[in-house]
Specification:
- This protein is an alpha/beta fold.
- Helix content is about 35%, strand content about 15%.
- Helix 1 crosses helix 6.
- It is globular, with a radius of gyration of 16 Å.
- Bound molecules: flavin mononucleotide.
- Flavin mononucleotide binds next to helix 1 and strand 4.
Length: about 200
């Protein structure tokens, strides 16, 4: 059973990629299998509102989203991370979210999957929790089960303060919340019947 992690940063291998992978590491420690997708370098166009996915289970846009849909179907839990841009999530992640309407319109295939959010910002008050709420709102729209970072403190999810690539590795407190998200998503997926090795 798979826990999928998606990073919405356009900077490959930078802070958000690192944090989502760190959360997946914890999910693996719980016994889950994991897969990681960085939207950096991928071509995921915004939804064009052609609405063909209301008629058939297919998107009219032929791009990298085509190989993400099957992973959304397959995963038992999802971790989504975004850098904070102008106090919100990135355009790259929003394009992915809008295109994921295919899942909703064709049988709510994300229903009941646990989902956790991670945000990375340069400043402590730069919009971390707002960005997490935006990700949570998308998860609720997909009828997913939103989880946070769990005990011992349990707040909204993974919040990391980092500006230049590599700085996330220095935010020990933030990385604890990130690991908590991985643990929560894997644990709740198991409670819902996911079988790990
Ligand atoms: C266009 C843009 C807007 C940004 N807006 C914010 C912001 O509103 N608040 C903040 O704290 N940091 C902001 N940042 C900083 C990023 O969130 C920060 O550099 C983060 O580590 C980027 O994640 P990445 O390394 O995964 O790309 C912004 C960066 C860019 C490029």
């Amino acid at each position: 059973v798979l826990i999928l992690g998606i990073s919405g940063s356009p900077r490959k291998g930078a802070n958000t990629d690192f944090c989502v992978q760190e959360a997946l590491k914890t999910a693996r420690a719980e016994g889950a299998e994991t897969e990681f997708i960085s939207l950096a370098g991928l071509n995921v166009a915004p939804c064009s509102a052609c609405d063909i996915c209301e008629e058939i289970d297919q998107c009219s846009i032929d791009d990298d989203m085509g190989r993400i849909y099957p992973l959304l179907d397959k995963c038992a839990g999802l971790i989504v991370g975004s850098p904070v841009y102008m106090v919100g999530l990135t355009a790259q992640l929003k394009a992915f979210m809008d295109r994921s309407v295919l899942e909703k319109r064709n049988g709510f295939r994300m229903s009941n999957k646990p989902g956790g959010a991670i945000a990375v910002a340069a400043r402590r008050n730069g919009g971390l929790e707002i960005t997490i709420q935006e990700i949570h709102a998308w998860m609720l729209d997909q009828d997913m089960l939103v989880v946070g970072d769990g005990p011992p403190y349990s707040h909204m999810g993974g919040t990391v303060v980092a500006y230049k690539p590599g700085e996330a590795e220095g935010d020990d407190w933030g990385l604890e919340t990130v690991r908590g998200v991985g643990r929560r998503v894997a644990t709740v997926a198991r409670l819902l019947g996911a079988k790990y090795k």
